[in-house]
Amino acid sequence: MNRLSRYLFIECAYSLVSALLILTFLIMLPRTLLLVDLWVNKGVAIGVLGQMILSLVPQFVVAALPLAVLMGILLALGRLSQDSEMVVMKASGVSLYQMLRPVAVLVGLCSLASLFLEMVWVPHSFHQFHQLRSALISSTSLTLKPQTFSHVVPGLTIY
Predict the structure, then answer these.
(1) pTM
(2) Using CA atoms, how far apart are residues 116 and 146, in angstroms rounded to an integer?
(3) Which of 52, 57, 86, 91 is the least crowded, having the fewest Cβ atoms under 10 Å away?
(4) How far apart are CA 61 and CA 58, in angstroms?
């Protein structure tokens, strides 16, 4: 990889990582707030809550990765175009295909990462989340409080 290809790759990668972090946070926020309700109202330990949130991360990363790739590439190339760096590259004899090569490598790496996440990491974390959830439902940490409505089991209200 020559210097120009590395520069384009790094510019696109920085934008991609930033977009991925922001999108994953925005997608995870509603589910995280539901889990924080367990901590506030049911007294679940913060460590268990952290494990549950971390076991949900791969599912949301897989959902956000394609959009983050698109946004990262568009933001990076848009910035390069706005700063007239694309004009300088084209004037110096760099073809569009040479500029496309590092972007294609980045897309290929993200596709492989998404495939790995979907095939290996997501099923493992999904299983771990459901083990934690079933342990919480069956544990005594979700005790019933007198004179209050409790929604310990979904679809069942206990007074």
Answers:
(1) 0.79
(2) 48
(3) 91
(4) 5
Q: Per-residue pLDDT tens for 44-60?
A: 778 888 888 888 889 99
- Using an 8 Å Cβ cutoff, are 63 and 20 in contact? no
Ramachandran class of 9: left when φ > 0, alpha when ψ lies in -120 to 50, beta otherwise: alpha
Tokens of 33: 């707030």
Cα–Cα distances in Å, from 99 out to 12, 82, 84, 103?
11, 16, 14, 7
In this structure, are residues 152 and 158 in contact, taking their beta carbons and an 8 Å threshold?
yes
Angstrom distances, CA of residue 34 to CA of 6, 30, 37, 51: 42, 7, 5, 14
* Token pair for 99: 């500029």
> Distance between CA atoms of 64 and 70, rounded to whole angstroms?
10
- What is the tens place of the pLDDT at every residue in 6-34? 999 999 999 999 999 999 999 999 888 88
Taking the C-alpha atoms of residue 114 and residue 129, their distance in angstroms, rounded to an integer, is: 20
The span from the CA of 72 to the CA of 18, in Å, is 8
